[in-house]
Design brief:
The chain is mainly beta. It is built from four helices and 24 strands. The strands form five sheets. Strands 1, 2, 3, 4, 6 and 8 form a six-stranded antiparallel sheet that branches. A six-stranded antiparallel sheet has the order 13-16-17-24-19-20, with no helix packed on it. Strand 22 and strand 23 form a beta hairpin.
């Protein structure tokens, strides 16, 4: 509901050590954010009166606690904002004039509003949002109440002809987001569900869920989420997108999974969406980037095997229908992924 690019692999599916990652950047940002209160502020101006603002910018970021829990995950695997319904994320409002930081001489209220959508935006803790006097920015912890593929947040300061407004880039708010240890039994045995409940309920109201199997585990923690398919994507009507964010490299930089021993996601699709056609006619839609286009996966060359020229594939031999007529589409992969039907 997660931007980075596919990595080259040798014929065994192992990767060389990745180019320098921004692990330290992520960690530093997380620690910095944890060190400030809900209304995180930049340092005040000194004795000189600050210039008055003529514009503002609004940026959204992942909650620092979530970032800290995923420390060590490849930076390219992390979306700009990773959040879900009822889970906190951060919004920073910054003041500017002529490209330079600016500030108000008095504490100034800030209004935060979501883009048009089904949900509401609330401040965590209920404290009124304001930018303190002589401060150039403030950071607020907020939550959104409904899943969406593209939320943006508008910030407004001032009023009348002195009102300044800015809007963040859009980002998804998933239905669910669960973080668990890379060695959790559910991941090892393939019962870890993107709905945080083992995909026990798949029906017309909950039409798609992903079960992830990492028999060799993952290095560090793993994030699993279930989100809304972006409007422009070729998802089946009503389908949901399962996202896996994890470090699937061993501590020496080698891949934990190979083409002959890959990781697996089983996309469980309710018969209301996937009830027509034979199992071999279905292919998963897949991306190895946080915001990349979901493209149709090729078929695996054999059961449980990824082809020499593939990084992922639909295992049509292992895919089945259950007694209720729901499709269980098996996808084999090597790296962090987003997938749907």
């Amino acid at each position: 509901m997660f931007s980075f690019h596919p990595h080259s692999s040798d014929q065994n599916g192992r990767r060389p050590v990745r180019r320098t990652r921004s692990f330290l950047t992520i960690t530093a940002l997380a620690l910095l954010a944890l060190a400030v209160p809900q209304a995180g502020m930049t340092a005040a101006y000194g004795s000189q009166p600050p210039p008055k603002p003529t514009s503002i910018t609004v940026t959204a970021q992942t909650d620092p606690g979530v970032l800290a829990s995923l420390e060590g995950t490849p930076a390219e695997a992390m979306p700009d904002v990773l959040t879900a319904v009822g889970q906190a994320f951060q919004v920073t409002v910054s003041l500017w004039t002529a490209g330079q930081p600016a500030a108000y001489p008095n504490a100034t209220p800030v209004t935060l509003a979501p883009s048009a959508g089904p949900g509401t935006l609330t401040l965590v803790g209920g404290t009124p949002a304001e930018i303190p006097r002589n401060q150039t920015s403030a950071t607020f912890s907020v939550m959104y109440s409904a899943p969406t593929a593209a939320l943006s947040v508008t910030g407004t300061v001032g009023s009348g002809n002195k009102k300044l407004t800015g809007q963040s880039a859009s980002f998804p708010v998933d239905l669910t987001l669960a973080i668990q240890s890379g060695s959790s039994p559910a991941l090892l045995n393939g019962t870890a569900g993107a709905d945080a409940a083992g995909c026990t309920t798949v029906d017309r109201q909950h039409p798609v869920c992903g079960l992830v199997a990492l028999p060799n585990g993952a290095t560090g923690n793993v994030a699993l989420s279930l989100g809304v398919c972006p409007t422009a994507e070729a998802c089946s009507k009503g389908a949901l997108v399962t996202q896996l964010i994890a470090n699937l490299d061993d501590t020496d930089g080698s891949g934990l999974y190979t083409r002959t021993s890959p990781a697996t996601m089983t996309i469980v699709c309710d018969k209301s969406i996937c009830g027509k056609g034979g199992v071999p006619s279905y292919r998963a839609l897949w991306s190895q980037t946080a915001t990349g286009t979901l493209t149709t996966t090729p078929a695996c060359p054999a059961k449980g095997v990824i082809g020499a020229d593939q990084l992922f594939c639909t295992d049509t031999v292992s895919s089945t229908r259950d007694n209720a007529g729901d499709l269980h589409l098996v996808v084999r992969f090597l790296h962090d992924v987003r997938g749907t039907i």
